[in-house]
């Protein structure tokens, strides 16, 4: 699953809490730190796997999502360079009573702090526990934002937002993405997304071609998502 | 807003963390603890108010919900005797980037630990910070459960679940509740709930009368919510 080791040289520059650790804690983390290169498409964590540990992304992109019994998906949030992933170590808190799947959306270099190591430090360290609190509050806020989107926003606005987010992440107006993938991000169905995109095309907002969506009018997409 | 003071005598029996506090911390909390009686229907906290503090419910019932710009509501979770309410002190964590409203669903006796007092103790105490982590993870889990309900469950199942939950909370099969209130809990519209309840009535699951819903067949409601 993991194909290449990367250097741990700069972990301390990436880990925001490094200077709050004592010498023993620093040594414990350094001695147990795992560095990995993960290929795009790899499932890094899911509810049935062992507790993976805390992930710190050096470079790349992860997607956290939930799955229904019928195999439907909805993206909870995405993580980028320097982001920490807490839910891959959900076993460190007994009150986390839900399961997520985490996959690499791009080739990703990351560090893994094993769950038991982090848990042990967090138990005794107020700074680490408080940092973990802030981390969880951030993800909780992401999910609250999602609930508000699902509840109060119509799908056309959500598709417009998603397309704009993608052009921003990818730095291009030519998105290589399938309708199925968009449906999985938004918790919708492929057919529904296809119908919406065709409507967008008739309106001159996008141009559709095989496996590709070209954004033609991002200003009107922005107006739509805000309306 | 608050009409009666209650005794703080048994706070230490209710607060699960009491024995993990040192003498100074115990004194700080005792000296600043606010005890209140809140009438049913009172809004205890909303996004625009000052940071209320941590609430510990002695007896009663609170509802935490979010509001859309158009005034639509959806219940995130409810709190009962001995539950702690963290989001009423959301200012203690800068990463909590969402606003909730908390109202008393019944007359409620509660203690308030002022936010600044709790925040100060949490900053230095690993046990308090870790306890707060577990508290937030519990609410996060409640909200994840809600997302799964909204995304994957049809409304008939959600209404069935809600009616069964209410009969359990109230200890009776005769629910004094309006269709509007059910809509506000489930993030739906009154008309949609009325249509669903009439369908339930035709199926012999409930009997509708003015301001009242009588559960006639809870076994079939249970089957429905699980299907």
Automatic annotation (TrEMBL), chains A, B:
InterPro entries: cNMP-bd_dom (IPR000595), cNMP-bd_dom_sf (IPR018490), HTH_CRP (IPR012318), RmlC-like_jellyroll (IPR014710), WH-like_DNA-bd_sf (IPR036388), WH_DNA-bd_sf (IPR036390). GO terms for biological process: regulation of DNA-templated transcription. The keyword Phosphoprotein does not apply. Gene3D superfamilies: Jelly Rolls, Winged helix-like DNA-binding domain superfamily/Winged helix DNA-binding domain. Keywords: DNA-binding, Transcription, Transcription regulation. GO terms for molecular function: DNA binding. SUPFAM superfamilies: cAMP-binding domain-like (SSF51206), Winged helix' DNA-binding domain (SSF46785). It holds the Pfam family cNMP_binding. This is Crp/Fnr family transcriptional regulator.
